[in-house]
Amino acid sequence: MSRLLRLAFYFLLAENIMINFMVLAGDVTPVIRAFEEYNIVSDVIPKAPPCLVKVKYPSGVQVYLGNELTPTQVRDEPSVTWNAEPDNYYVLAMTDPDVSNLEYPIRREMQHWLVGNIPGSNVSSGETIAEYLGSAPPPSVNRNRYVFLVYQQPDILVFDEPRISNRSAENRDWFSIANFAKKYGLGDPINGNFYLAQYDDYVPIIHGILNQNDN
To answer: Is residue 24 over pLDDT 50?
Structure first.
């Protein structure tokens, strides 16, 4: 009888492990797999986030793990939500790791949006370090990756980064979200998402605004 009970116990344990594995595979694996497939792991961060952050633009489009959107569609600041604890604080970052030019023909990172000290997922109540800047890839490239990452802060933080207007490109270039996370003890990202974009007719408008204010 005791042997039957032990067998029944092991069967239930194995069944629970399988159920948990299936849940994880359904909810977590697509994010990790996409971040690895598009080389965001290694190019941007050392470890993929386990969960998705939801990003929706006023134009109606939504970001989902490498779908292609246009600079026109993503010109305005999106709404961003994730499963946040209301008593915790978070950092939200949007970065482009595919910036290059003729002088420096190597891949480098540019920050497009950076907000810290976000209470729960209330981004508008956070501390904006870099205001939102939409996608503006040059016509000479195929598609750039635009990556959203959420980090949980250990506590309220004091950020000594320069504050950046959405009308300026100054201090956005040569950024590293991995170094930023290390500097402030954020650990690995807990949520992520990304889209691809290539040049369209809205890009010259963005560059015109940035050049006018940075010169």
So the answer is: no
**Is pLDDT above 80 for 2?**
no
CATH of the domain at 32: 3.90.280.10
Rounded Cα–Cα distance for residues 170 and 148 (Å): 20
Domain range for 102: 2-214
Supply the DSSP string of 152-192, one letter for each residue.
E-SS-----SPPB-TT--TTTSS--HHHHHHHTT--S-SEE
- Give me the number of domains the chain comprises: 1
Mean pLDDT of the chain: 87
| Structure token pair of residue 11 | 């069967």
Exposure string for 155-185, b = 16+ CB within 10 A, e = fewer: eeeebeeeebebebbeebeebbbbebbeebe
Among the listed residues 120, 110, 193, the one whose alpha carbon sits nearest the alpha carbon of residue 153: 120
In sequence order, the 6+-apart residues with CB closer than 8 A to the CB of 67 are 195, 196
Whole-angstrom CA distances from 159 to 9, 114, 150, 167, 208 are: 52, 11, 16, 21, 30
How many Cα atoms sit within 13 Å of 73 on the Cβ side? 15
